[in-house]
Automatic annotation (TrEMBL), chain A:
Origin: domain of life: Bacteria
Protein name listed in UniProt: Xanthine dehydrogenase YagR molybdenum-binding subunit
Domain Aldehyde oxidase/xanthine dehydrogenase a/b hammerhead: 27-141
Source organism of the structure: Faunimonas pinastri
One GO MF term: iron ion binding
One Pfam family matching this protein: MoCoBD_1
Gene3D superfamilies according to UniProt: Aldehyde oxidase/xanthine dehydrogenase, a/b hammerhead, Aldehyde oxidase/xanthine dehydrogenase, molybdopterin binding domain
UniProtKB/TrEMBL annotation, chain B:
Protein name per its UniProtKB record: Xanthine dehydrogenase YagT iron-sulfur-binding subunit
Keyword flag Flavoprotein: no
Domain of life: Bacteria
Residues annotated as signal peptide: none
GO molecular function, one term: 2 iron, 2 sulfur cluster binding
2Fe-2S ferredoxin-type domain location: 14-90
Keyword Glycosyltransferase: no
UniProt keyword list: 2Fe-2S, Iron, Iron-sulfur, Metal-binding, Oxidoreductase
Amino acid sequence: MADTATLIGRPSIGQPTRRVDGPLKVSGGARYAGEYFADDLLHGYVVSGSIAKGRILSIDTSAAMAIPGVVEVFTHENRPRTAWFDSKYQDQVAPPGSPFRPLYGDGILYSGQPIALVVAESFEAARDAAALVKATYAPEEHITDLDAVKGQSYVPPKKRSGIAPPPEPRGDAEAAFAKAPVKVHETYRVAVEHHNPMEPFATTVVRDAGGKLTIYDKTQGSQNAQAYVTGVFGLNQSDVTVVNAFVGGAFGIGLRPQHQLFLAVMAAQALERSVRVVLTRDQMFTLSYRPETIQTLSLGSAPGGKLDAIMHHAVAGTSHFEDYQEVVVNWAGLLYGCDNVKLSYELAKIDTYTPSDMRAPGATLGVFALESAMDELAYAAGVDPLQLRLTNYADFDQNEDKKFTSKALISCYEQGAERFGWSKRSAEPRSMRDGHELVGWGMATGVWEAKINKTAARASLTETGHLEVSSATSDIGTGTYTVMALTGADAFGLPIEHVTARLGDSSLPTAPVEGGSWAAASTSSAVVDACDKLKQALFKQAQSMPDSPFGNVDFDGVAFRDGRMMLAADEGSSVKLGEIVRSARQHRMEAEGSAAPDSATQKEYVSYTHSAIFVEVKVDEELGVVRVTRIVNAVAAGKILNPKAARSQILGGVVMAMGAALEEETFADHNLGRFMNHNFAEYHVPVNADVQDIDVIFVEEPDDKTSPIGAKGIGEIGIVGTTAAIANAVYHATGKRIRDLPITIDKILA
Amino acid sequence: MSSQDAQSLSPAAVPIRLTINGTERRLQVEPWTTLLDLLREQEGLTGSKKGCDHGQCGACTVLIDGKRANSCLVLAVVKDGAEITTIEGLGQPGNLHPMQEAFIEHDAFQCGYCTPGQICSAVALVQEGRAHTREEIREYMSGNICRCGAYTNIVDAIEDVLGQSSTLREAAE
């Protein structure tokens, strides 16, 4: 037993570790935003508008107000006063423009726009009354069809913060393409997709007797939501706490504050009561989405496939009020070596809500096009698709003329191909069969940026020797709690059971929104720094204790293990950490630390995660049904902090890619200017029966430059390239090159 | 923990008796209240989740008289006398059900929102005795959507528990 206990107590970064929040999540104890209560809680139900553009002429709330239990119906006519300036509504990740303001005026900017909030004593009364709110409109002509406006595309005049515009052209791509002996020139599209986290958007505002607000919000950033609320409603930061301890999925849709947050706070302030607003699943389709993007890819190569020209042009839809931007085309200048490259990215305005980041924003689209075109080039040049990637392998980033901090993509190709059995592939399309089904093997490369963002953390040790590590970051299912606890346990040599991780609370040390795959590397690096500082403070205190064994050593001469500080040279000379805290006459000792990108490194290096994806599909040609029977995704992402949760992140990305490749498609009725299939029966996401065998490989990739802890982040890389690998496998199986996702039955049968 | 006390209910409310997680409850419910809303809002049992309110996602799955059901599609009044088991009743930290343990061990969830429904569904699936292969598990678990994409781990967890229960059955025989 003693041995087991010692084993459990081992420092454990890099060991597969169960989620520390697991017991709460499997027993119903984890509370999400819409699951908090207050004695006087009111329920808000949103009324969605029914036209895409125009003005509200009248809005009749009398029937709704007559329903027993209804307290108030808020519309643009009786909305309490809120901020005037756009800047107050602009959150940390807002694109340039004028953010949408709920109930601000009579103008309608998109279909499904909230036009009223019914507030009642019960959820059922609010829902019932909401159906009785009657609006009349003066509709105006709308355009929601990107094809109708793509000719009026423009280069966004103001760049979105954090989003790199396409680099300047290098060489002469047009001339090189014109004379290239092997060419591919095609157009690629991906349907509009909605994030659809399982938890509907919800906000519970609990208002205390003194008017202070505790806001339980579904968000990827508690401090982003807090800043929005204080700005819009003119409140003091000390009067508003935002909590997002558990978030039921987000995938990017929780980065920006959504309208239920505004409406719940507005109602709570106006009525001086606690209020909860939960959106319905169909209202989730009135929030943001992955933008429809039309991409043209031109590749020119020498006979053996060596690239000599790359041109990638994209036109993406955005709203009339904001210029949403993401990195779609830059990947084509990064992933492969090529001296003649021209990349361009433009926007066109349609009458919808502003699109948003959705898992690996931009890359999911751009790398699909690039990696589909590379497969087409492999066939045009008559070389193996994997060999084509190796022929064009990039050792440095030609976009920025910088080195990679690390790039183990070759290992991904090698180990992925070996595990999959790629060498047994017969190149000819339609050449492999299993019974009546066609078998296809396809591959692709994935890439996503790796970076850390400025993040602070606190480490706190109690007199009983229990460690708490905390930061205002989020865990949207990504495993942040566990990575933080692991990091703290590792730093102090404590069993993970003696460490508590706290996050999801705006009052904790400053952290950015959880997105961009940066949370694990940033937060754990900040936790390491906080723990280092706390250890030094403990050492100083221990030196001052009577009969201290540490009087004659410096900090490097001590070690921390199993709840004790000891002489590195003589482990028998040790003091319990709790005793050190008590000797300071404190209940706890604490220290704050932080992590931030290193600007000197950034001048010389770029950092990316990479992957190689190998896919087997089986296609029943008579029915047009595609089944993905096998996927190997080999990932290079620096140090893997918790392989158990990291593997799950890749699995999740792969499954979402299967949805994008084969199922997910939000249909618009352009006459009504509205998304039509706004429920899970008609918007298909993968279910259990769709997902068979997924094999995740993490290749060795030492990296001492991306983050202090050596990690790169794995939240997004799993989806990137996987859609292309599936489409390429479908081509290999059927001989049909389908360039617009999803690859649905009708396209196979066409 | 209840947010809606008896006074705020309309005169249409009717008395029903439910056994919820082994405890008999005498409740006043309005005829339009779903079992899911009753559990979450009146009983404070928020472990059962609302993902779609249309019976399309399975997040609200509970056991009604031992059988799995989408509680968002069930009006509470029609289940007078029934025995309801929610995720809270299956097991709590320190005393988890083997399926809950298996979900943790196999990392069969990420955000956790669909998890209570998945686990209730999986427990019923094992009791139904219909699933013997991974393919059958996948098929019979396809009423529970997991947007985080933990499906292969969910199948691993269920296969693990199925293995344990068949070992137990063999031992008993």
